[in-house]
Predict the 3D structure of the following.
Amino acid sequence: MIPLTQAHGAVPPRLEQFLEAVSDGVLTLDAEDRTLYVNAGAERLLGVERARLLGHVLWDQVPALAHTAWGQACRQALGQRAATTREEFFPALGAWVEIRVFPSGEGRMLLLRDVTPLTQVASESASLHALVASAPAVAFVTRGPRHVFVLSNERHRRLHGGRELVGHAASELAGVPRGLLEVLDRVYATGQALELEQVPLTVETPGGPREERVFHLTCQPLPGAGGRVDGVTVFAFDVTEVVRGRWRAERLAEELSLSEVRFRSLVVATSTLLWTTDAAGCFREDSPTWCAFTGQRYEDWRDGSGWWEAIHPEDRARTTAAWRRAFSTRGLFEAEYRLQRADGTYTPVVSRGVPVLELDGSVREWVGSITDITAQRRARQTLELLSEASTALSSTWELHRALESLTRCLVPRLAEACGVYLRREDGTGERVAFTDVEPLRVARLRQVEPPGEVPPTVRQVLAHGRGECVAALGEEALAAEPDAARREARRILLGRRGLVVPITVKGQVRGALLLLAGEGYPPYDGDDLRLAEELAHRAAITLEHVRLFELARQERDRAEEANRAKDAFLATVSHELRTPLTAILGWTNILRTTPLSPEKQGRALETVERSARAQAQIVEDLLDISRIVAGRMRLEGKPVELALVVEAVLEGVRPAAAARDIRLEAQLDPGRVLGDAQRLQQVAWNLLTNAIKFTPPGGRVWVRLARTASQMELEVRDSGQGIPAAFLSHVFQRFQQADGSTTRRHGGLGLGLSIVRHLVELQGGTVHAHSEGEGLGACFSVRLPLLTPRMPSRPRLAAVSGPRPEQPPDLSGVRVLVVDDEHDAREILRTLLEESRAHVVTAASSAEALELLARAPPDLLVSDIGMPEEDGYSFIRRVRALPPERGGQVPAAALTAYTRPEDQAHALGAGFQVHVPKPIDPTQLMKTLASMLAATG
């Protein structure tokens, strides 16, 4: 920025004239906060003469400013070299002041402006907005001839579906009623206020259709400059409900005049018995419904006493007392009694009556009704019975006891005898519950009923699944039964009629419910059939609940077994991981504390390496199983010469076989299959190492690769301990071992053969295991589809034996930046790289690495992925955002324990060139880094 003052501290004349003319205050401060220049505006705003300020520290002359927000910002601007703005109220000035601070070559320049009027306007505008927003009416303000909304409260927006209206023209919005636009145009054009009542407007409802509402409108012109109308202010009160209430009251008044005629018509037309009496209780007119129901004539009951004759004698006294009590108190009359029908039978009814009073409080007449409550009473009894039946069925999870409780609940309320029959697997029926009003008959039935015997009607219902009626069995039909036992069993049906309904679960007939009733019960009708079907439905629900409960119990048992298996598996994993870890830690401690001969050091290092590779193999097996279970195992199908794969595996296992004095014999026929060479190698490796592990010293392992017309068969046979017959069917299951005890002779997780089966099946093959028994060896056969013979091609195979010592590549002069939050990981990488004569710099975090990168860009970058605060993905993206001269294109390798395919894709997509999984192979890592350098030239 150009300095405001010249070298000698003076302001150029023209600039000074301009600064003195402006109303804003201008000050300049040097680096020590001394005032270099003060114009008249600043002198006025600060209330201090410029003579006191010039050449002095501002905060000494105006101490009140030192602790203000803009005073602090002024001092911070010097260090940050950035402009800043503050607005603050100065109590000493009684004004709001806006201060802008600009760093300059000589210090800072300050601009002060009095914004008190603007603040007051903003405050008044906010108050106006708050007043309109909280108004208990629809309120809005428009401007201009297009009526652009400049203010709209929530009630107004609600009428437009909740949309934001400010900034939109009312004349262009589809939801604004046409009548409202005409009112706005009139007020805007004439400048005269309007008050309109009951204006119908069609508005939107939130989340609903448009509807017509009625409003009282108050529209005021909004004055503008020069006396012209700038806009319109509208307050609208929704009076829809008030208007509708008045309309309803008017309509009600019209209808009241017809109420008496309607009531009299209803008395004649309704099936309910309606009655009216005068104030003394005498009937005033004939009731055809009463006459039809009771058989009485109008002359028999018009005096008010004859209708008592139709009430059941046992209910007359109670009903009379209720009427007299209501008559004396001029209150509600209500009574439940039995009323005689025209055929002489009695029906339960409830009668209710109320007095109609005159204006002076006297009784003008009594009106009432008599309702047949037979259906209601039966419905109530049905609900009570269903509730008790549900309680009985849910009282226990033991099925036979629950069904027995159901039959006891239904006898004798619904039937004299009740039975439940369930269908067996072979389609025959079985009686599982039976209750009779006479328990001796049930005991007799159990003695004489043949096994599996059910009534014929029950057999039919179990067969076709439709409810049927049971006709009463007579003496002649019973005597015609030739079988004595069957005849005695059917005697329980003698003289009883009944119902049989199916018990159906998910469309399948699972049983039947039998109801039997004698002469003391009314005949079963349609309502009884529906009740029986509902009872059967609830019994079916109980059957399903018991089945589900049993399944849940079985699932719980399986879950508990799986939990036990999980605990056993975790114990095995812990053992298998701790065993090589013990060797690693033990030999590491010995190498650090005890001098060893070169020969023992070599054996110690071999043991540590072998143990570490064993741990790595366990992790790989667990990851393979995880991929298989998740369905993410991906194979690359290419023509593979299977003999070459098996030969590579044989070369890898020969040292282990020789160490145990196990003889390997192989017979390999050539043949090509379509598969993944690396995974086929894993199959052969697992089978051969398994055979060597379970073969005692001095034993033999045979490998045969034979070719048939359509298949290649790999057979691995050993003279080892064999497989027990009981375990043979589980040998390819996960986490299964013939000996899982703590005294087992061989380690492992029981995953290798499971991985073999899945890999073979994924490549279209099959695998089988065979053993004559314990001590007789085992044989595993893998069969894969054969390809049409073509020119042999050697597949690329990974090394399956221990790594052979190789000379690491020369990285002399190569600068490598290693980023890893783990100290041990950084140190081992430093050691490996320095052995290849590279220059290594390490960083414990991405922030530290970025500093080192900016200071001296390296030739190679090796970074971990999982790091605190910022992971490797974010770190490499920040690196790639740098320009090339600052290391933005440095070759980078992701070194991580995240080894899934999606992890590799994520790393490459973030900006890494290669993805190297942990644990690392030192030689392979150095080759990878050397190839990255060669690729970048």
